[in-house]
Amino acid sequence: MCNGDYWIVGIADPNNYYLEENEDNNYTAIPVTLSLQNDNSTSTINVTGDVQICEGEDLELTANYGDSYLWSTGETTQSIMVSEPGNYSVTVQNSNCSFVYGSPETNVSEVTADAPSIENPISTSCLGEALSIELNVENANWYNEDQELVYTGNPYYMPILEEDVHLFASQIAQDTATVVDKELLEKIDALKQRLVTSFGYDDDSASDVLTYVGSIFARGDADEDED
Q1: Domain count, the chain
Q2: Each residue's pLDDT tens digit, 53-99
Q3: Secondary structure of 187-221 in the HEC alphabet?
Q4: Does residue 211 lie within any of the structural domains?
């Protein structure tokens, strides 16, 4: 964020949880002039560093708020969806800044894992008896015929087989690189919604705040690694 004129916008009840007599007057906009900031700005992406995705998985990358956006892919929206390995960066233009630096690259790679096989194949198992199926991998996800996840681990064990079972398994890739934590992203989204509903941020400014805070932590991690 550079020197210049900005607006701080506060919105009451942005999701219309309450019935109001006039829905057109539930916001306040306050003009603010910044004069102690840098003249230059650096673009940021909400997901930084080395990231791994599974085959067929999409990853959303979001830039900090600005007047316009130009991604390394040629796209010009604030957020893009990526599903291919590669290096992604963005330049966010801000009319108040003399010069804007492009963001550091987010390096996306794809996790590959061979299909698992059964260690000791079995053709039948009697009803009322225990069933154990072990694969030749360290860990696996097990799915039923509706492709619903029913178990994670290896082997798959049922103390009592009560009916015919159709199972499919996929290997869980093990790697030391960073993998996108979907649970963490859900928590970040919940925090964003709280900023909007409880503190008067709009959707763009809430994303901008979280992206900026994330970039601060990322710089801190980098400084620790250099030490």
Answers
A1: 2
A2: 877 888 999 998 888 999 999 999 999 999 999 999 999 998 888 88
A3: HHHHHHHHHHHHHCCCHHHHHHHHHHHHHHHHHHH
A4: no
